């Protein structure tokens, strides 16, 4: 809903495209801070408490950019909106880990699929609001009201919080002592950064690639992102079944490998049809990767699921923001399509490192000791 309103808000506040880029950095900074806070609160208070509160905060702050009349007001609004969004992002993913554990089968990708569907529905609703003449304040205010209602009503359906905190005894270290973050969590976070950097690059450069490199008409160029987003959603709807049958390692390994093939086709093909096929393969391959990384982070340690998800999601979000900028900087050195070969390298790296999703031999023993 916010993205659809960006042009109107930019014009009303009176800022340039360059200034808008700086404001979007504030949105990202707020989101990153919210992820760190949301992870810790989810472990301390439980996701059943954090998710509804974060949902209300995220929804309410959505209205603020629509009300901003001055650049400073928009900056504050985006910082607060980003914080609410980041808090909700981690809280709902941590709760999804809890749901997945209760189901005893993979379901994380299905949640990410509904996230994609929600984005499409919101964009359509925002476009319809523009067509009937609603201004940003009215549109975002209405969306904020609907979001608050959904957050409060759905709270009753969330799973109850199950305490997973270790109980200290005379022979153990104090339960409150700060523990070092396992190396495995940071490796998952780095992979999330690489994969989400690829997603960010596709979001911002897929359409421009067809238009500027292959001279496709604007109407045809729009299909580049459309095919990528469509196969991303379809892949997420199917990825849980694949993970249940073949395991998360296979989803990441072969998904990232397929994405590497797809983006290589995009980078090297001189034909529009082949490029569209490449973007479709890229979206399908990436579709199941991030859900598996988030799920692995949440299941790694039941006592720190929220914090671990926040670390992986936070670093991944940095990659999402950095992707467009990295590609943009590289276009000063080479043609746009050739910059995509960097994404090939990142996808190949993720495929090669997929074994990190295999549970640690000590994990089951650690869960027993902390249950």
UniProtKB/TrEMBL annotation:
UniProt KW keywords: Membrane, Transmembrane, Transmembrane helix
Membrane-spanning residues: 15-33, 72-92, 113-134, 140-159, 185-202, 222-239, 251-273, 279-300, 312-332, 338-357
Gene3D superfamilies per the UniProt record, alphabetical: MFS general substrate transporter like domains
SUPFAM superfamilies (UniProt xref): MFS general substrate transporter
Membrane topology: Multi-pass membrane protein
Subcellular location: Cell membrane
InterPro entries (alphabetical): MFS, MFS_dom, MFS_trans_sf, MFS_Transporter
Domain Major facilitator superfamily (MFS) profile: 1-362
Main location: membrane
Statement: the UniProt record of this protein carries the keyword Nucleotidyltransferase: no
Protein name: MFS family arabinose efflux permease
Species assigned in the record: Streptomyces africanus
